[in-house]
Write a structure and sequence with these properties.
The structure is a single chain. The protein has 310 residues and is mainly alpha-helical. It has one domain: Ribonucleotide Reductase, subunit A (Orthogonal Bundle), CATH 1.10.620.20. 73% of the residues lie in helices and 0% in strands. Helix 1 runs antiparallel to helix 7, helix 2 crosses helix 9 and helix 7 packs antiparallel against helix 8. The model has no long low-confidence stretch (mean pLDDT 95).
Length: 310
């Protein structure tokens, strides 16, 4: 039986894969400027020290649930300093790993800039409420619940894709062409980040399939969005799910399954008993998730039918 690789050995063995995928990423990533996406002509001075006009809910025509999703998405992006700390601590700051950590952080930084500037210029959200929520969320910070590099690689592979889906669907739900364009641009970044992490985890699966299979299963079974710790997240995520912006169906069919198929986890050969056990747990969890997703959809459809009949 092959010896399980240590985390240090994984970092060393995966370094060439990191370099290869970093070069690929730099070759396809497009330079863009947040200020070019913001409708500055729509902006007005707010009340306060400059004596402008106070924010009112009717300042924006974006549906309430889309505003809620925009708030969740922005606060999630705001926690970048914590995310940087987590991946820099795990992957290090040297070599190709360190170069990627810096590049990823720099690209992610544009997301909160462009979304916030848009929300303020378009008056889609109360800026005081938004700032208070930002302060509270960033003070709480983010700390990964996963203790190994493999678990963290698996998590970001799914999380980047989940974030992409959430941004794109929020843009569509906004009914605002500018908002949709901004979130499509952000989602394009998230997709490239997903590809980077997905390719790394795929290489790890080849290096040590049993240990990596366990990490994948553990993450799938316990996955939560990085914004789960923000105040009111459960209530807001339920509103978002009922609107069909991001729900169990999209999580399973558009996030989990595409990545798992890319890794070919159910075709992987040569697993030991522990690896097979992890894969069986994964299959059972996905079956149960399908049942839960169908039940949620049925309840949501019934609720919408009752509301339409009123």
């Amino acid at each position: 039986m092959a010896r399980a690789l240590t985390q240090t050995e994984f970092l060393i063995e995966l370094e060439p894969v990191v370099e290869e995928n970093l070069n690929r990423h730099l070759g396809v990533a497009k330079e863009w400027f947040p200020h070019e996406y913001v409708p500055w002509d729509d902006a007005r001075t707010f009340d306060g020290i400059l004596g402008g006009t106070a924010w009112r809910p009717e300042d924006s025509t974006i549906p309430e649930v889309a505003r809620t999703s925009l708030l969740v998405n922005l606060l999630t992006e705001d926690n970048l300093p914590s995310y940087h700390h987590e991946i820099a601590t795990t992957f290090g700051r040297d070599g190709a790993w360190g170069t990627w950590v810096g590049r990823w952080t720099a690209e992610e930084g544009r997301h909160s800039i462009v979304i916030r500037d848009y929300l303020i210029a378009s008056r889609a959200l109360d800026p005081k409420t938004l700032e208070r929520a930002r302060m509270a969320h960033m003070e709480a910070g983010f700390q990964t619940e996963y203790g190994t590099m493999l678990q963290q690689l698996a998590y970001v592979s799914f999380q980047e894709l989940a974030t992409r889906i959430a941004h794109r669907n929020t843009g569509r739900a906004s009914g605002d062409e500018t908002c949709e364009r901004i979130l499509a641009r952000v989602a394009a970044d998230e997709n490239l980040h997903m590809l980077f992490y997905r390719n790394l985890l795929g290489a790890a699966l080849d290096l040590d399939p049993n240990q990596t299979m366990r990490a994948i299963t553990d993450v799938v079974k316990s996955f939560q969005m990085p914004g789960a710790g923000m105040a009111g997240f459960a209530r807001m995520s339920m509103q978002i799910a009922h609107a069909g912006i991001y729900d169990l169906r999209s999580h399973k069919d558009e996030v989990l399954m595409p990545v798992l198929r890319q890794w070919r986890v159910f075709e992987k050969e040569g697993l030991d008993p522990e690896g097979e056990k992890a894969r069986q747990e994964l299959a059972e969890f996905l079956d149960n998730l399908e049942v839960t997703a169908k039940r949620f959809e049925e309840r949501r459809d019934a609720r919408r039918a009752r509301e339409a009949a009123k």
